[in-house]
Specification:
This protein has 519 residues and is an alpha/beta fold. The protein has 21 helices and 15 strands. The strands form three sheets. Strands 7, 10, 11, 12, 13, 14 and 15 form a seven-stranded parallel beta sheet that branches. It has a six-stranded parallel beta sheet with strand order 2-1-3-4-5-6, sandwiched between helices. The longest helix is centred in the last third of the chain and has 19 residues. The radius of gyration is 23 Å and the shape is globular. It binds iron/sulfur cluster. Iron/sulfur cluster binds next to loops.
């Protein structure tokens, strides 16, 4: 195979930004797979140019140049930037490949703008793409393994791509690691709910932790496992075997069912400094929060006690909620969350608006069958800029009034002050304060207020939410223009729009074929 010049772009953000949060955190949010693909390409003897876009750079200067093929990794919110980059590269004769969550959620739409669209990706799949390396128009080729790869290059092998990324971060340097894929739980909205749980090699994890201790006095690690600690003892033994306990500080996403008091003692011993459990709803998904048979106020009180117990062991906790789930009705779910904010001031609450990401989860098929999915452009599908599902039990204005009320309560100076006092750790205090006063707290509250105002005052805006028109309100078109900045001229025609029911249509089209094979 001839030696190729390959560009790899990790799109961490969708467009130019100057926010404080972006400056401190974006470089710490780098994805693992672009680093993995870069490593595999080099192992195959190709030349790699690696770029990370955090929103703070001048993108045209950042892009790899003089290349034969480019891999772009993107979440759905950055998809229009990814499509524009692909268009630019294709105009120069470069073959383009899309991977990452957007490629898995919207493969049909992505294939309109890329030569290759990758689902589950392993080294063999990458080799296949590199061997062929051909343009495919008008539709790109969709390729996927049958499951997640069984092994990935560790931190030491990826270091040449990790190090320059972390240089962009002025304060914290958080190294991305992963020890498992998939999840044994089946939360109906989650992309990992259909991926079987699969641990990676614990020996590689040990080697990586040892390696990191040669790079930093006290390394920080963000574990990208969808649900950290399912193989609890293996993880803890790996951490305990490498050095003085607690010499590496870790941030993990674990379900509450894993965060028992005995496990937390061992987490603390081994330097787990931040946990991000999902509570999601007071009325649904109790199995992963050890609250299977209770709901409403009873569940809220039990979980609040559990969270307060966690704060005795772990300095930083973010509790995740999904707003607008079908099990929620009326003001009560929002009022319960406000009470939770009061009862558990040590936790930072993260709110996501219910979003159906293409074919991420089987539940999205039912939403599409019920004709509830709205065609909001990809740029707004990041769990807060738009809720692309008509809520089952709320009118839009009622829903947004509750969202604004909850956000205003959570990010009031009273609640910010209580969180500041409740967090015993200076870094936790500062983190909570920064998040509340920057784009995430005040910023989102201001944005929700604008959406509510438009829903009340602008008939065409409201009609879009009701599914009565597909004409995108100017409010959103202007946001896309701002997001893309200098790349706007490369946005492919029609790319602002996608078929929000593509998953259902694909399933229906495959049914007659399956039936004829069976008969
Ligand atoms: S526990 Fe977390 S990772 Fe697992 S399916 Fe539920 S939301 Fe997804």
């Amino acid at each position: 195979m001839p030696k190729l010049k390959i560009g790899i772009i990790d799109l961490i953000h969708k467009g130019p930004t100057n926010s404080l949060y972006a400056k401190i955190m974006h470089a710490n949010l780098a994805s693992i797979m672009p680093q993995v693909v870069a490593t595999w390409c080099e192992q195959e003897g190709h030349e790699v140019k690696f770029a990370v876009y955090t929103g703070l750079e001048n993108i045209s200067k950042e892009l790899p140049k003089d290349i034969d093929l480019v891999f772009i990794c993107s979440f759905t919110e950055a998809a229009l930037m990814a499509y524009s980059l692909s268009n630019l590269y294709r105009s120069q004769g470069v073959v383009t490949v899309l991977g990452g969550p957007h490629a898995r959620c919207y493969p049909e739409d992505s294939a309109k703008y890329f030569d290759y669209v990758l689902g589950f990706t392993d080294k063999d799949l990458i080799s296949e793409v590199l061997r062929e390396c051909s343009p495919h128009k008008p539709l790109g080729v969709q390729l996927s393994g049958t499951k997640q790869p069984e092994g990935l290059p560790g931190v030491a092998e990826r270091w040449k791509f990790i190090e320059p990324t972390l240089k962009k971060s002025p304060l914290l340097k958080i190294v991305p690691m992963i020890g498992s894929m998939g999840c044994p739980y089946t939360c109906s909205f989650c992309i990992d709910s259909t991926v079987p749980y699969q641990p990676l090699d614990f020996d590689i994890i040990k080697e990586d932790l040892k390696f990191l201790l040669t790079k930093y006095k006290r390394p920080w690690v963000a574990w990208h496992d969808p649900n950290f600690g399912i193989r609890f003892n293996d993880y803890m033994e790996a951490m305990e075997s490498i050095a003085k306990p607690g010499s590496v500080w870790s941030i993990v996403e674990s379900s509450l069912s894993i965060l028992s008091e005995s496990n937390l003692k061992r987490f603390k011993h081994n330097g787990i400094i931040a946990v991000l459990p999902g509570i999601e709803s007071w009325y649904e998904m109790g199995n992963k929060s050890k609250a299977m048979h209770i709901q409403g106020e009873e569940k809220m009180k039990q979980i609040s006690e559990h969270v307060n117990m966690i704060t005795q062991y772990i300095p930083y906790i973010q509790t995740n909620f999904v707003l607008g789930l079908d099990g929620d009705e009326g003001k009560e779910p929002f009022e319960l969350t406000k009470r939770f904010v009061d009862l558990s001031p040590g936790a930072f609450p993260g709110y996501s608006l219910l979003t159906a990401f293409g074919e991420a989860a089987p539940l999205n098929l039912s939403y599409q069958q019920e004709n509830r999915v709205l065609p909001f452009p990809h740029s707004f599908l990041n769990n807060f800029l738009a809720m692309n599902l008509k809520p089952k039990n709320y009118e839009w204005i009622e829903f947004y009034e509750n969202v604004v009320d909850l956000a205003a309560y959570t990010f009031s100076w009273r609640s910010i002050g209580r969180r500041f006092r409740a967090d015993p750790h200076p870094i936790g205090k500062l983190m909570n304060l920064m998040r509340a006063v920057s784009a995430e707290g005040f910023g989102r509250l201001g944005y929700f207020r604008k959406v509510l105002k438009n829903l009340k005052q602008d008939k065409a805006f409201r009609a879009y939410f009701e599914g009565e028109t597909t004409i995108l309100p100017e409010f959103y078109i202007n946001m896309i223009r701002k997001d893309l900045g200098p790349m706007l001229e490369w946005l492919p025609e029609g790319a602002m729009y996608h078929d929000q029911n593509a998953y259902l249509k694909k399933q229906e089209a495959s049914q007659p074929l399956k039936q004829s094979i069976a008969s």
